[in-house]
Amino acid sequence: MSKPMIEVAQLHKSFGVHEILKGIDLTVHQGEIVVIIGPSGSGKSTLLRCLNCLELPSSGTVKVEGTSFSDESGRYNEKRVARLRTEIGMVFQGFNLFPMMTAIQNVMAAQIKIRKKSAEEAKKTAEKYLTKVGLAERMNHYPNQLSGGQKQRVAIARALAMEPNIMLFDEATSALDPELVGEVLKVIRELADEGMTMVLVTHEMRFAEEVGDRIIFMDKGVIVEEGKPSDIFNAPKHQRTKLFINQVL
Ligand code: ADP
Ligand code: MG
Fold first, then answer.
1. Atom 26, ligand 1: which residue's CA is nearest?
2. Model confidence over 146-193: pLDDT tens digits?
3. pLDDT tens for residues 126-143?
4. For the chain, where are the E strands, in sequence order?
5. CA distances from 80 to 157, 163, 181 (A)
6. How does it sit in the membrane (predicted)?
7. Whole-model pTM?
8. Which atom, in ligand 1's list, is nearest to the CA of 48?
9. Cα 216 to Cα 48: distance, rounded to the nearest angstrom
10. Is 92 strand, coil or helix?
11. CA nearest ligand 1 atom 19, residue
């Protein structure tokens, strides 16, 4: 298979006395689309947040394109974390746009602040990605002038403008009215077709089945079962997977 983009080994994460992730092993290869499903509270968001170091593991390692977030002695160096984090784009359920900035300003901000681009360069890149997500006509709108689906597409354009090699989506469509889900899934599907490496958490099971190369079912902080979409959805092996699939399909 192609090169590993993310390598997680024996990842444990606790909040206080609660162990939320209990030894996760996961490798995501270049161009692969991994979809994580599982009940609420099973640790899906925590896992995604550990992948780009928004949360630090309690133990275990996370490597991005072969480089560990922590150094040889297990310490986290801020510079190294910041650099690796820019290689991973993340899109959340809530769009987290700056309300006082237009769509294009939202997409420009991190490029200027973190990538140190000139305003002119950042604007060009922002136009490119806003056009890509179908918002060429909405660049100068403020978030409150945009629908939920449009706001989420701005958030995707903002992540893409950093030109990451990996994209993480955490329930990107969960906050949207049903009629707006499709336009966001369409953008994600296009990224998939272009070969972007992606890890998605979603409740859209049909979408998961359609775009996923691999489905991971998580429950109570462990990976219970993983496999091809057709196997997980049609012939789950574990009782917990069966129960979950029956509830959500
Ligand atoms: P999921 O995304 O699968 O619904 P989460 O990863 O969000 O699950 O949460 C798993 C568990 O971890 C939940 O019980 C949640 O309350 C807990 N948790 C998540 N983040 C924190 C935090 N920052 N502090 C304390 N507990 C947390
Ligand atoms: Mg979650």
1. 15
2. 999 999 999 999 999 999 999 999 999 999 999 999 999 999 999 999
3. 999 999 999 999 999 999
4. 4-15, 18-29, 33-37, 59-64, 67-68, 88-91, 166-170, 197-201, 214-219, 222-227
5. 24, 18, 36
6. Peripheral membrane protein
7. 0.95
8. 6
9. 13
10. coil
11. 46
